[in-house]
Amino acid sequence: MPVSPLAVAAMLACARIGAVHTVVFAGFSSEALAGRIQDAQCRAVITCNQGVRGGRFIELKATVDTAVKSCPSVQNVFVSQRTEHPAVMGKLDIPLEEVGHMIDML
Question: Which positions carry the signal peptide feature in this UniProt record (predicted)?
Fold first, then answer.
């Protein structure tokens, strides 16, 4: 995730529920990300469709999609819409905005 209040909230939420988590710099390659996911046997990844850095768009979701292909432990990818560019959603993907609505209904 890019540096944002949502990234901080995600980290704090993981800490609050006691979930083992790691924060990965948004500039990592898909290979570097996959290695970290595999080492930790992650079951979920939280990302954004894109990040904006120095006026350029970084395709974060595409990087995660490539990484997750070699990570069978991942069951869900939570995706937040940071920019107007829609993310291509796959079978593992859950829009993060929908999760908030589901929690509100509980």
Answer: 1-22
- Degrees to nearest 5, angle at CA 47 with 43 and 50: 155
Distance CA 42, CA 75 (A): 8
pLDDT in tens, 47-58: 999 988 888 999
Q: What pLDDT is stored for residue 32 in this prediction?
A: 94
**Positions in the chain short of pLDDT 70:** 99-106
**Whole-prediction pTM:** 0.86
76 φ, ψ (degrees, to nearest 5):
-145, 145
Mention every residue, 6+ apart, whose C-beta is less than 8 A from residue 20. 14, 40
Q: Which CATH architecture has domain 5-105?
A: 3-Layer(aba) Sandwich (3.40)
User: Which residues 6+ apart lie within 8 Å of 47 measured at CB?
Assistant: 1, 60, 61, 64, 77, 78, 79, 80
